[in-house]
Write a sequence for this structure.
């Protein structure tokens, strides 16, 4: 069984085969998050799409409080974490945009994203549990290569930033859905955390439905079975 919990903003927890995977773990400074950081010290895998503070989040503290957790991000970002924060290389999964990598028995891949980052390029992350393929787009604008991501990875669920200004807005997210063609659902993320990215999530639902896909709007902290 696979479950997914949205923690607010881009922070997402996926549980599969006894493993806890955290993507972009902004926990302490996330106004939408309802849980203390200590609840996530047991994370097995931490995925970082890029190094902006609202995505790198609490990854460093999480890594330092669990000597068994692994981190996957671009090589450049991992090199920065090693040099600046002494996160040991043996606990990081060197990667860049490309094909699947086996991480603790789960297939994961980094994908292109159109955004900015101080260390390495921004990415999305694909997680293939065997039963479901989940694409977390990270922070990104709309780009045509999403068609290729859809063809290569054939996602069941996609998590798309929809707050506008720094990423896609609800309408652009619906266009992304037509490129990615998720079979089971489209989940909005990275919206309504702060005033600059406030949107009407009802617009997201309507646009995605109009394109023929299933919107899945979660409240912060909500966990669903996939």
């Amino acid at each position: 069984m696979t479950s997914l919990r949205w923690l607010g903003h881009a922070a997402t927890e996926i549980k599969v085969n006894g493993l806890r995977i955290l993507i972009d773990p902004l926990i302490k400074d996330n106004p939408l998050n309802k849980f203390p950081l200590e609840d996530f010290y047991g994370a097995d895998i931490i995925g970082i799409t890029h190094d902006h503070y609202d995505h790198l989040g609490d990854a460093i503290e999480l890594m330092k409080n669990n000597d068994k957790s692994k981190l996957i991000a671009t090589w450049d970002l991992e090199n920065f974490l090693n040099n600046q924060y002494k996160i040991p290389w043996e606990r990081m999964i060197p990667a860049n945009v490309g094909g699947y990598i086996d991480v603790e028995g789960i297939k994961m891949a980094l994908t292109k994203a159109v955004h900015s980052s101080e260390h390495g390029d921004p990415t999305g992350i694909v997680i293939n549990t065997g039963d479901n393929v989940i694409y977390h787009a990270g922070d990104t604008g709309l780009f045509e290569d999403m068609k290729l991501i859809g063809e290569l990875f054939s996602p069941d669920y996609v998590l798309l930033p929809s707050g506008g200004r720094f990423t896609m807005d609800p309408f652009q997210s619906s266009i992304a859905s037509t490129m990615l063609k998720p079979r089971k659902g489209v989940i909005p993320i990275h919206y309504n955390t702060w005033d600059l990215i406030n949107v009407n999530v009802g617009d997201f639902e309507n646009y995605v439905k109009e394109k023929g896909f299933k919107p899945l709007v979660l409240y912060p902290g909500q966990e669903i079975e996939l």
Notes: The chain has one domain: 2-210. The first strand starts at residue 2 and ends at 6. The helical segments are 53-56, 59-64, 75-85, 146-153, 170-180, 201-210.
